[in-house]
Amino acid sequence: MTTNTCLDSGPCLIRDDDERKLPPLSRSDVLNMPQYIHHLAPKPPPEISHSVPKNKNVKQRCVKFTVAAVISLLLLLLLAGILLAYYFSSPCLHGMQCGDGECVWESQWCDGVTDCTAGQDEANCVRLHGSTFLLHIYSTQSRNWRTVCSHGWTEQQGRASCQNIGYSRDTYFKSGQQKTDSDDGFLLVKSDFNPEASILQQLVLSDTCPNNSAVTLRCTDCGSGVNSSRASGGQLASVGAWPWQVSLQVAGSHRCGGAVISPYWIVTAAHCVDRASSPGDWIVYAGILDPLETLFNPAYSVSHIIAHEGYNSLTRRNDIALIRLSKPLDITASSNIGPVCLPNVGLNITDHQKGWITHFGGTVSGGSLYLMETQVSLIDTADCNNSITYNGRISQDMLCAREMDAVADMCRTDSGGPLVSLKDGVWWLLGDNIWGEHCTGQERPDVYGNVTYFLDWIHHQMRVKTKEG
After folding, report:
1. 319 annotated active-site
2. Are 433 and 448 in contact (CB under 8 A)?
């Protein structure tokens, strides 16, 4: 049996009855016993729970996820909008634009196969460079312009190249050679030349060329036969001095001047043909000094009149036009008729370059029109655009030239007449007369269309009409 003895002032002692009984404690033992005091520890304050109910926590996470999803979606829509805007503003992200909304791969450009509807991908792939007429062809493989090695080159390839530029086969003049170094490599004629294929498909890339001999090309016999040692003042022109000058006439009267650039083609001003755009209204006379000479020279009819599509009659921007004759001028029959050369890419024409203008004019007192010649000097565009001259009206498609020794009683009466310059023994067509104030007393320089600026446009029109026949 177990007995539980509990003292009020001490802990409870538990013993078994079978245990040996201990003698009772004396008073002194009780007094000498260590005393223990039991202290109850205070209960800690209840913890305040900051936990959110489970359903409320799930709701907050859903809200956060929804907000994040909406923001991500908006960012994706914004990115898609930017990409779409870029795509529509630049439809040819990995190619080249034809010009009419079509797009072709860059590898299809200048590969000899027409992929653009209007043929822009095969236009301007062949060009002549500098005063030596060095032949350049664009390589779609190397993506640069390369000179053509003369090794294996024949007149047949020469004619094909001129046709690609825009000249007719029957106006071809000759091919030549020029020693040149080319860091960009060469193009070499294939051994199995196919005359039916494009010239662009008949060439292969080459790092070297025997003797570094490159091809030069003359698509028409131009820019020769003029005596360059002439007086500087305005004077009457002599017979055969300016064989490219023509008189463009309507109803038997001289209307404008123009310049022959090939037996078929004449460059003039767009404002000359703006109000008489029917080819049947025009007659062209070449090799004359006086309109009365029309009685003794053949009249040439016109098949096409092409004014620049961007011509603006108010600003005179893009004031250039081409006239195609129904039959070619017979430049072999008369030394008084011949083309002037179009300015090749890379022709170094500088400010203050000396040149000549020719025009059918007369004296202030009247009299018959007669072909006049005057030496001029090109003027820097910035100087021509200053506030006291043309006050910003001169754009990049224009040139300014001032007569070096203007004669007071001479007055020009026609537009479209040529501005030419002699460089490296060749006469180049730099401009067509579009307006002048020589007769107003203000003595401002005359303004000409910049033929170099329009070179691609001219060749494009020639190509299109030559293919049409």
Report:
1. yes
2. yes
Give residue for tokens 């008729």: 337
Q: Distance from CA of residue 444 to its chain's centroid? A: 32
Is 94 part of the annotated catalytic residue set?
no
Residues 277 and 315 in one domain: yes
The two beta strands, 144-148 and 186-189, are parallel
Q: Which residues are bridge partners to 146 per DSSP?
A: 137
- Catalytic hit among 111, 115, 221, 319: 319
For 447, residues 6+ apart whose C-beta sits below 8 A from its C-beta are: 316, 384, 390, 394, 398, 399, 400, 433, 434, 435, 436
Which tens digits make up the pLDDT trace of 331-380? Answer: 888 889 999 999 999 998 888 899 999 988 765 445 567 899 999 999 99
User: CB within 8 A of 282, min separation 6: which ones?
Assistant: 248, 249, 250, 255, 273, 276, 301, 302, 305, 323
Q: Which of 186, 218, 250 is the last residue of a domain?
A: 218
Tell me the residue type at 22: L
Which listed residue (136, 254, 271, 459) is catalytic? 271
pLDDT digits (tens, 9 = 90+) for 196-221: 888 999 999 999 999 999 999 999 99
238 tagged catalytic: no
Note down the domain range covering 449: 235-468
331 and 240 inside one domain = yes
Please check whether residue 269 is in contact with residue 415, taking contact to mean a CB–CB distance below 8 angstroms. yes
pTM > 0.85: yes or no: no
| Burial of 209 from C-beta contacts in 10 A (0-12 / 13-18 / 19+) | buried
Give the separation between CA 21 and CA 445, rounded to whole angstroms: 145
Residue 169 sits in the same domain as residue 267? no
